[in-house]
Design a protein that fits this description.
There is one protein chain. The protein contains two helices and 20 strands. Helices cover about 10% and strands about 25% of the residues. The chain is mainly β. The strands form eight sheets. The protein has a four-stranded antiparallel sheet, with no helix packed on it. It has a four-stranded antiparallel sheet with strand order 14-19-16-17. Among the domains are: about 80 residues, no CATH class; about 30 residues, no CATH class; about 90 residues, Jelly Rolls (Sandwich), CATH 2.60.120.770. The longest helix has 19 residues.
Amino acid sequence: MASAGVSAVKIIDNDSDVVTVTSNRLDVNAYLSAGTSIDIGDVDIHLSGNVPLLGGAGSLAAGVLRVTIADDDNVSEKLTAIDTDTGNIASAIYADDAAFSLNSSKGIAIMGFAGTQSITTDEVGVLACTASGKLVVSIGHTSTSVPISGDIVLGNTYYSETITGGIMAGAVRNDILDALAGTNNECAPLQVDALGALYTSSVKGSLDTFAMIDVDNSEEVLSDTIGIITDCNEIIFQADESNSGYIMIGDADVADNRGIKLNAGDTFILEKQMTTGINLWASAANQNLRCTLMRAA
């Protein structure tokens, strides 16, 4: 009902019913069916403090809508897990600009699978290792030399001849034999000819020949006669053809039938032996013994 002195206008619907007003507001709920759409035009939405809500991409500003996720929400739990995991990754990676140091507490651990797997060409597979964490490798045919240290567990061999297989050692083909070795105690490649035959040398050093040694019927020490020599590749003994008796070669216990017996004209060779510790004995006085050393020098 209109106040005194104020004109009123009644609104009726298509059925000539008067539209009702509740608390001075037009009551439209009764005239809307479920799912009815109402076009109210453009509406400006303001945030707390009468800050207008910004649309579009926008950047960080007072009018940009912010969403707070509850602590017990599943999304919050996932974000927390991601933050923890990325933090663990960052702490495990050596990120210093300086060269990597063995004393660093950071690094990336490469995991291995203690077992076997079957993968095809162009597929990605995990590294295989033993139960104790040793990497399993398969050495195949390659022209690249790879320095390997530590324990190695060999996988499949690549060279097979009928049933048996094995690892083939390569060598450098060198039709005109050249010296490829460096200095002493350095590694050098083996060399083969055009047929794959390995180059070898039978040279065992330089000769060092001594005058005839007179061996009597008593124990004598070789080094007392020719000196102490330690670089012998070979020591060659030969009993003179004109000897009337025989000569025994042995250690400090040398005597008749105790050692190596050289009759007249016999030859005996010792390899990789020093002149010390070699004793001589003859069955008669004045038995001649030739002695020649093949010395490493």
